[in-house]
Amino acid sequence: MIEPEIYVFDAYGTLFDVHSAVARHREAIGPQADRLSELWRAKQLEYTWTRSLMGAYRDFRALTAEALDHAAARCGGLPEGVRMPLLEAYETLDAFPEVIPTLTALKTRGRRVAILSNGTPGMLASAIQSAGLGQLIDDCLSVDEVMVYKTAPEAYRLVLERFGVRPGQISFQSSNRWDIAGAARFGFHTVWINRGGLPDEYQDLAPGRILPDLSGLLA
After folding, report:
1. Range 39-44 average pLDDT
2. Catalytic residue flag (residue 213)
3. What is residue 4's predicted lDDT score, i.e. its pLDDT?
4. Considering the entire predicted model, what is its pTM?
5. What is the average pLDDT score of the chain?
6. Which CATH superfamily is domain 6-17+94-218 in?
7. 20-90 adopts what CATH topology?
8. Residue ranges per domain, the chain?
9. What is the pairing mode between strands 6-9 and 209-211?
10. Of 65, 105, 136, 189, whose CA is between 20 and 30 Å from 214?
11. pLDDT over 70 for what percent of the chain?
12. Of 10, 59, 94, 179, which is the active-site residue?
């Protein structure tokens, strides 16, 4: 296969570690920290899917706060003074260690690099800046433009409209298997970044490649 012209990345879980927000406040949260982080992420995603199906869009920042509140209630509450720092930390998540070297190498090869994310433009801008990715990202697309979350086709179509290309010219990378299924259905070349070594699913919508992290894109 000819190398795609444009590499499009999901943001949360793919470029940015969604569990790094809780990790920064692990000592204050206590023994429920890991459970809180898992529940927070699971509810955040659940809210995107249910609201898309209902046609009742609320932006990702609002859903992130609502998901944290639910997760905290399930874990017996948060210590005083921790909620706002957690939400602020989610705006400046840590990038995975191979992100900058991989994106730098792709740019050196002359490839265009973009993000397609459920995040709001403001959340994404903060994360990109704090992780030092500003010079490596050619464009950052948010589903806020269409007010429906991935895996809706309208979300993936944003890439075609922005770059004026066909689906087959896009390599789409995500750590979320459901996102890869949606992108494959839309016609993108897909790479599942299976960081956790999870079992496959959505067998009829298989990824083109499966990698343990982004560095494998350079092979």
Report:
1. 98
2. no
3. 87
4. 0.96
5. 97
6. HAD superfamily/HAD-like (3.40.50.1000)
7. DNA polymerase; domain 1 (1.10.150)
8. 6-17+94-218, 20-90
9. unpaired
10. 65
11. 99
12. 10
Question: How do residues 71-122 score in pLDDT, each as one tens digit?
Answer: 999 999 999 999 999 999 999 999 999 999 999 999 999 999 999 999 999 9
67: pLDDT strictly greater than 90: yes
Q: Which tokens in the block code for residue 64?
A: 């992130």
DSSP per-residue string spanning the chain: -PPPSEEEE--BTTTB-TTHHHHHTHHHH-TTHHHHHHHHHHHHHHHHHHHHHHT----HHHHHHHHHHHHHHHTT---TT-HHHHHHHHTTPPBPTTHHHHHHHHHHTT-EEEEEESS-HHHHHHHHHHHT-GGG-SEEEEGGGTT--TTSHHHHHHHHHHHT--GGGEEEEES-HHHHHHHHHHT-EEEEE-TT-PPP--TTS--SEEESSGGGGG-
Q: In angstroms, rounded to a whole number, what is the distance separating the alpha carbons of residues 72 and 95?
A: 24
